[in-house]
Amino acid sequence: MNDTATHDLVVHGDIALSNGMVLKAGWLGITNGLVTGSSETPLSGIETVDAYGHLVLPGFVDAHVHTRSCRDEGITATTKAAAAGGTTTVIDMPFDKPARPVNSRERFEAKVADITDEAVVDVGLYATFPPEGDLGIIAEMAAAGAVGFKVSTIEVDPIRFPRIPDGRLYEAFQEIAHTGRVVAAHQENQEIVLAQAKAFQARGDTTPVDHALSRPAVAEAEAAGRLLELAYWSGARLHMVHGTLPRTFELIEWNRAKGVRASGETCIQYLLLTMDALREQGGRAKCNPPLRSQENVDGLWRQVQEGLIDIVTSDHSPYPLHRKETDDIFEAYAGMPGVETLGTLLYSEGVATGRIGLGRFLELVSAGPATLFGYSQKGHLEAGADADFVVFDPDAEWTLDESKMHYAVGWSPYHGRRVRGRVVSTWLRGRCVYKDHAVAVAPTNGRFLPARDDDDRSSNGSRESYSNDRA
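Now predict its structure.
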């Protein structure tokens, strides 16, 4: 112990700054779980993390996970996997199983209590609302700390994951606009998707790749355009989740130019996998919206480079293999694990290949999602921020092995993939939560992160300025 120490913890390594620049062999000071600043000269601390030769990155923020899409996974397994992958904050979707969507203040507060008992990293929460009933619950859940409200234009389950009719969506968008929270939308045209699936099954076209072929691009693009119109006329702030098409982000950009408050994310699988993965992996590679063509993958990478895509997420939604590997692809569950590999895969395929720089990488998985959802204390290593950081070896070359990951379901669509860059350790508010290939703490280290009411993103003007004068 250093009796003259001025910090609780100091970190010595290549410190990644908010502008993407790196303070080589620099020093990061941490006291009371907060960053106090960085320095080119040595700092003294009670403890020192020697990360010399490694990058010290802000903790990753995965803004799209489903901790309870599968009862076998849950908050603890998901957040352990997050910690192992360098992710220190996740934002969890509300479509929980068994058939318990987070669509009331009581359910929201019960899930907050579970986070306190079960989470390894910090967790923000989306809420949702049912297709019928009093929309006053939106303001109640916003007051309880919901970061936003997830909706879908296609029905997966009538109770857990329903389709919200357009008339109800329009009313809800207006209510959400008053809260300043975001509307996060799954965009697929239900009529197109169901009609195509029925036709494919009638012909006996039920092989894995038929899943992608039966959900054509127009289904996503049409629904995206419809949601953006609702945002335009209601004044709501729209976040388009898991976009798979360059067209989707073109529509977002066009609408932004017209004053619509909109953002968009793609997921790591849509940057790394094509529909050929369905031929190779079968139901393991089934997700909704589906994997697309190489042309679409290339187009998304161009938009990542150009800044049209705001953030990259995992859409972590794992299921056991017996739910994935079915004879009829339309009977297989849709979703895959991904929270543990998000940062490593984007670094490997983006930064290490020269497609994007380190600054853009951090915009996509650290500062960008933190800013977008109002978590100003996350996603950067400036003074006053939570001391969430990742010691990262940029030169490590290794092979992903699903048997060594922390998912309860025990598999990964990236098994056997060679990557460059590896998480050495993960720290949450100055406390180590992952090191030496093992999660270093028990659950309860993570905290619930309520949305901030004082965030300037909440200023949305009057609803009349968006609706009445455009009627």
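Residues 256 and 262 are 6 Å apart (CA to CA).
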